[in-house]
Amino acid sequence: MEILNILNPTFNSSNVHIQLQRFPYPPYKADNFVLVIQVWFPFLLVMSYIFAAINTVKNIVYEKENGLKVAMTIMGLSGWIHWASWFTRSMVFLLIADILIAVCYIVKIPITSGGSSSVIGESDITLVFFFLFTYSITSVCFMFFLSTLFDKGMENLN
Fold first, then answer.
1. pTM score, two decimals?
2. How far is CA 146 from CA 1, 62, 82, 89, 140, in A?
C-alpha cells in the first residue's frame, strides 16, 4: 500500500480490503497405473509402428531392386512425385493406425471399482492425434532414410 501512496498521494488506502486464500485445485490422486504406463507407453507406441516401417522399407527396396523406379523415371515420372506417392501410401496406413490408437488411449472403459478410466483420459483427443500424426510423419521420413541404405531387399529384411 505504501507504494501506491508514494506513486499517487491522493490514494486513500483505508477503503482497500485485501483478502488472501489458497488457489483451488483438485485433490491429488495416487494412481499406480501411471508408473506402469511410463515404462510401457513408449514401447507399445514404437511397436505399433514396426510392422508399417518394415513393410514400407521392404517395398521401396524391392521396387529399387527390380528397377521399377528407373523404369518409371524413363517413362517421365519425376523423383519428387515418386517419393510423394510413397509418402501418401505410408501416411494413409499410419493415419488409420493413429486414429485407432488415439481412440483407444482416450476412450473411458468401465472398471470393476465402479468408475471408468482410460489410459490418458485427461488429454484432449485432438492433441493426442496430433502427437501421433507428427510421429507418423517423422517415422515415414525415417523409413525413407532406411530404404536408401539397402540395395537388395529380401536378404536384408527377412
1. 0.69
2. 66, 13, 16, 17, 10
